[in-house]
Amino acid sequence: MGGIREFLREDIGRGDITSEALIGDRRGSGKVIARQDCVIAGLEEAAEAFSILGLRTRSLVRDGDRVCSGTAVLEVEGDLRSILSGERVALNMLMRMSGIATATSEVLAACRERNPGIIIAGTRKTTPGFRRYEKKAVVLGGGDPHRFGLDDGILIKDNHLAVVGSISAAVKAAKKASFMKKVEVEVTSLEGAREAAEAGADIILVDNMAPKEAGDCRDEIKAIDPRILVEASGGITPITAPDYAASVDIISLGWLTHSARAADLSLDITSLEH
Fold first, then answer.
1. Can 157 be counted among the known catalytic residues?
2. What does the pLDDT look like over 231-251, one tens digit per residue?
3. N or C: which terminus of the chain has fewer CB atoms within 10 Å of its end residue's CB?
């Protein structure tokens, strides 16, 4: 699993030869500036990257805060070579995480105009080694992380059903695994939704359905058991998500972690010690 020390080793390698050649033993400070309106995420990780290199940092806002373009979000002080050596890793984490948090916040706001109780969730479609940071960013944007891994919850998908043979048999087997775990089933039709509800699924994921079809499944499921949660997923984007908001309880978007654009932040050196 990727960690910040590993990210620094990857970038710095045997040393930052440019900074070592040009700067010497000078000290100074810099500030990380947001270059767009965004939700900030990754301050803790950026500060850790700088701290590993022996630098002092001070957060000027909090993770989860929405800031305007031009806002200083983090201050770093110490050896200038170390500041420049850690700059890229710190900014990469801040930019990636803030982009995800911002996208999550925007999708949530648009969907809650249609359904104030809607939950926006991520998926496991994350960058290998970076999942914990991307999931954290979803949460900082107001979303739900969904499953962190396969050991985090029971979700019966199409290939499970291909092996087991039926939704009813799969739900029955899953229910025996643990009374502590909810059982979610992925379905692709109204008939499948009905079978999953009648089998006792706790959550039913309607996959790759149009909003109206998802709503029809929701009505059928709630008529059988109103306690069952209905989740929509599969090819949903920030543009289409609001169309699903009135039809389901949860919308999960892999888009949040595989397609959200990084936020624009940069580091400016603000003072030099002579």
1. yes
2. 999 999 999 999 999 999 999
3. C
